[in-house]
């Protein structure tokens, strides 16, 4: 393997995130588009993308704003919806713990579903490149600039095209997430995790404040662990295909 | 002011969740079992997000039917990803099938 520089890691991270970023484009545009009719100001819409930077939580918050929910309730819901990110940090902990605090804070800020999915694959590769955090930074920088650009495009488009919300572009997120899950389902424990998480998500869907998402995730993780114990160790980390350039 | 509190509050909780474990990372030792469990986090969480989106587009009722373009699109996306292994083609292709199916339904070809 050719030694990776900071720059090459950064751009590889950005490049490997491209498919997921394309999946986020319609999602970001729709967010900006719908914000007007939901009663969220331009400052509030852009502020969320700039500072919160969490797609699904932003959507849910917007829906709650439209329903006239008080802000403390929306903040609480955000907490529940984003709680899964604690598991992401826990997963990356062994890799991030040697970094300086400023790096930790920076990477934590940008730990979206997409960047986590891409970066965890890089961290788990066996090479001992000292610059893997630059890979994660490249992914989050690309994701962040794209998300905010799409939000702005959406804000503008929403004032021009009234029915864009009905186009069903939110499906892009489903497609992107399916693409992110597929590389994992290569052995029985992961199959169990996915099937149980999916079934539980349907079952618990009616619970308030997206609690069902947390419960379903835990059920899936539990099923994976259980299947792991029954069927034996899995065949190494199947985190993500990567060409070992 | 209301907007400031909302965005500020959302920022604080989101960043805290993503950051809180890191300052203690030197003292936290994850057992091998816990580390293995964390390996199931990405597929479990992502699936828990997408299954209701695909099967309950209106957020209320499960629609396990060909008249649900989200379901058809999701199945097509999974099939393409399974066969092709190319993430970009999978997402763009899945999006294409979804929009085409929506259009077919809209045109009323399925009755």
Please render the helix and strand layout as text:
The complex is a heterodimer of chains A (245) and B (111).
Chain A: H1 6-38, H2 42-52, H3 55-66, H4 71-82, H5 84-96, H6 101-109, H7 113-123, H8 132-160, H9 171-181, H10 188-203, H11 211-231
Helix pairs in contact in A: 1-3, 1-7, 1-8, 1-9, 2-8, 3-4, 5-7, 7-8, 10-11
Chain B: H1 2-19, H2 32-38, H3 41-55, H4 69-84, H5 87-107
Helix pairs in contact in B: 4-5
Largest β-sheet summary of chain A: none
Shape category of chain A = globular
What profile does the largest beta sheet of chain B have? none
Largest interface: A-B, 95 and 68 residues
Q: Report the β-strand fraction of chain B as a percent range.
A: under 5%
Quick check: average pLDDT of chain B? 88
Distance between the termini of chain B: 52 Å
Characterize the overall form of chain B.
Answer: extended
Uncertain segments of chain A are 236-245
Percent in helix of chain A: over 70%
Gyration radius of chain B, rounded = 20 Å
Task: Figure out the total of helices of chain B.
Answer: 5
Low-confidence stretches of chain B: none
- Helical content of chain B stands at 55-70%
By DSSP, the count of extended strands of chain A is 0
Overall mean pLDDT score of chain A? 86
* SS field, number of helical segments of chain A: 11
According to DSSP, the number of beta strands of chain B is: 0
The H/E string of chain B reads HHHHH
């Amino acid at each position: 393997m050719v030694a990776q520089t900071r720059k090459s890691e950064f751009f590889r991270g950005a490049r490997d995130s491209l498919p997921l970023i394309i999946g986020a484009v319609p999602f970001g545009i729709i967010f900006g588009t719908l914000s007007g009719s939901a009663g969220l100001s331009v400052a509030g819409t852009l502020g969320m993308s700039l500072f919160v930077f969490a797609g699904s939580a932003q959507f849910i918050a917007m829906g709650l704003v439209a329903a006239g929910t008080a802000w403390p309730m929306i903040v609480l819901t955000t907490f529940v919806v984003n709680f899964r990110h604690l598991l992401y940090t826990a997963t990356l902990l062994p890799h991030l713990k040697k970094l300086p605090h400023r790096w930790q804070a920076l990477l934590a800020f940008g730990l979206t579903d997409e960047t986590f999915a891409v970066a965890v694959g890089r961290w788990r590769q066996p090479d001992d490149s000292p610059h893997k955090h630059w890979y994660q930074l490249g992914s989050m920088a690309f994701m962040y600039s794209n998300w905010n650009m799409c939000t702005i495009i959406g804000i503008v488009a929403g004032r021009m095209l009234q029915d864009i919300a009905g186009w069903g572009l939110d499906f892009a997120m489903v497609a992107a997430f399916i693409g992110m899950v597929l590389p994992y389902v290569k052995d029985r424990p992961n199959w169990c995790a996915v099937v149980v998480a999916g079934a539980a998500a349907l079952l618990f869907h009616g619970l308030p404040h997206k609690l069902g998402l947390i419960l379903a995730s835990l059920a899936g993780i539990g099923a994976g662990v259980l299947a792991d114990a029954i069927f034996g160790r899995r065949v190494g980390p199947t985190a993500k295909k990567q060409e070992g350039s | 002011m209301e907007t400031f509190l909302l965005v500020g509050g959302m920022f604080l909780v989101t960043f805290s969740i993503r950051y809180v474990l890191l300052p203690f990372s030197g003292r936290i030792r994850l057992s091998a079992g816990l580390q293995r469990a964390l390996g199931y986090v990405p597929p479990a969480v992502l699936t828990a997000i997408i299954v209701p989106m695909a099967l309950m587009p209106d957020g209320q009722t499960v629609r396990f039917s060909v008249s649900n373009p989200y379901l058809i699109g999701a199945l097509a996306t999974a099939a393409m990803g399974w066969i092709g292994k190319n993430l970009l083609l999978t997402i763009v292709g899945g999006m294409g099938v979804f929009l085409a199916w929506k259009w077919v339904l809209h045109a009323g070809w399925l009755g």
